[in-house]
Amino acid sequence: MHMEPAPGVLLPEEPARRDARHEAKIERIARQLRQRTSARPASFKKKTPPHQVPKRYDSRRGDEKIDLSDLDQILELDPVAMTCTAEPAVTFEEVVRATLRYGLVPIIVPEHKTITLGGAVAGCSIESMSFRDGGFHDTCLEYELITAKGDVLRCSPQEKPLVFQMLHGSFGTLGVLAKLKFKLIRAAPYVHVTYETYATLEAFQQAIWHYFTAQEADYLDGQIFSPTQHVLCVGRFTERAPYVSRYDWLKAYCESIPRRTEDYLTVYDYLYRYDRGVTHVTPRSLVGRALFGKLVHSDTVLRAAEHFHRFLPAKNPPVIVDVFIPFSRTAEFMDWYHREMHFYPVWCVPYRRMRDYEWQTPRWWSGVKDPLFLDLAVYGLEQPRGRNLYKEFEDELQRVNGTKTLISYNYYDEQTFWSIWNKETYQAVKQLTDPDNIFRDLYTKTCRAALGLQEQTPGPGAS
User: Region (Disordered): which ranges (predicted)?
Assistant: First the structure.
């Protein structure tokens, strides 16, 4: 399959010139950090909008900005070793277009085209190969990090391993990720998807467990449409396809799932089958899609929300949340969800536990024996007046020993937050990479600044 590379993705450039240009960018950023005199918090300016839930009162909009928008080049693509080295502002779409020329793709490709490599590390990206290989961070081999003091660190599982592990889910609070190297996998030109429908959660989970243990599929995700309709989407690479479907205009992939028994897509179209919406697509009407379907996708929606943030809800914003449930506790959680939330569809992504990650506390891990989690994602649940559904999710997660990503609204109190996220390991890295706390600590950034709440002024390295 021939795929034209996106402009500027993979330039025929001498390695020495390419590396010199990267080093010049690093020096510019490091110099800005070393010469910084402001007492204001700092955060990052990027060329793509952050793939987080936009918030009306997010105080980070007033931060001093560190411009990372030119960290947007693929530096090396090694088709023999099956690795890619790139700067963090490169989008996954750019990587996919470049690697497909060699019959390769990243192992984990997030669902939206404009998610960046750095964003996937900082914000915990997973997708339908996660049942085999965990998250995108689990496929990474090396990072280059610029500290708040302007020093450059190189870290890997062998060199500064705690720094390497703690960058995942750190949301830019531990420094500037400047370069990363990650693994690729061989891909056929097409993906054949079969849709298996189950009337009960028990049967749905049994099927997930079968594919998890047998490892006989390449991709696995699903949608829960009601307490009695669960559809598992099983994807396998294939060299030939009798037809191909596309869902980038009038048709929506999420709407096709309960209507079909099988489907064929090019690898590229499979990887971005959800780019216009995972469980709901805008516009909803056929006329609206005919007029605007090619224009409205994840990037345009996020850009509009950020630009017009003053018009975002001041209270009771719709719920957009990803929760991770230990496989054996899924029935308990879904009983609660059907009773209290009853909003569908729910996206389901099985996630293999690759290690006891250092960013969660030992106490939290002590309650989790499962080798598999289910990431259950809810998009657009309206909140009734008088209820905080985000807080209700957080409380239920405590009961079933689950956790969540921090991309959405977070209402944890500080004590509860640090009973889940590992303050000891976080602080050990923070002291090395941001001792004066110019990038805020993880709790302050995701639970207070994001909501526009008054921030404490901790001492150096404190949280």
Answer: 1-62
Q: Which of 298, 246, 250, 252 is CA-nearest to residue 267?
A: 246
Are the C-beta atoms of residues 152 and 30 closer than 8 Å to each other?
Answer: yes
Looking at residue 305, its amino acid is A
Helices then strands, counting H and E runs in the chain, come out as 16, 16
- The rounded distance, in Å, linking the Cα atoms of 280 and 271 is 17
Q: What is the pLDDT of residue 59?
A: 78
pLDDT of residue 462: 46
Would you place residue 297 in the very low, low, confident or very high pLDDT band (cuts 50, 70, 90)?
Answer: low
For the CA atoms of 233, 208, 222, 225, the dihedral, rounded to the nearest 10 degrees, stands at 120
Residue type, 285: S
Selection from 334, 433, 418 nearest residue 378 by Cα? 334
> β-pairing, 42-45 with 64-67?
parallel
Mean pLDDT taken over the chain: 90
- Strand, helix or coil for residue 111: coil
Mean pLDDT on 187-210: 98
Environment class of 214 (CB within 10 Å of its CB; exposed 0-12, middle 13-18, buried 19+): exposed
As a whole number of angstroms, the distance between CA 402 and CA 83 comes to 33
DSSP H or E run through 34? helix 15-34
User: Residue 2's pLDDT is what?
Assistant: 43
CA 178 – CA 291 distance, rounded (Å):
40
Burial of 158 per CB tally in 10 Å (0-12, 13-18, 19+):
exposed
4-30 pLDDT, tens digit per residue, is 444 334 445 678 889 999 999 999 999
The rounded distance, in Å, linking the Cα atoms of 266 and 245 is 8
Mark out the alpha helices in 124-235 (DSSP H runs): 130-133, 161-166, 201-214
Q: Could you please report the per-residue DSSP string of 329-350?
A: GHHHHHHHHHHHT--S-EEEEE
How large is the average pLDDT for residues 246-259?
Answer: 91
Distance CA 80, CA 425 (A): 36
Contact 49, 303 (CB under 8 A): yes
Residue 3 is encoded by which pair of tokens?
A: 């795929």
Identify the H or E element spanning 85.
Answer: strand 83-86
User: How far is Cα 436 from Cα 40, in angstroms, rounded to an integer?
Assistant: 11
Q: How many CA atoms lie within 13 A of 160 on its CB side?
A: 16
Q: Would you say 154 and 414 are in contact if contact means Cβ atoms under 8 Å apart?
A: no
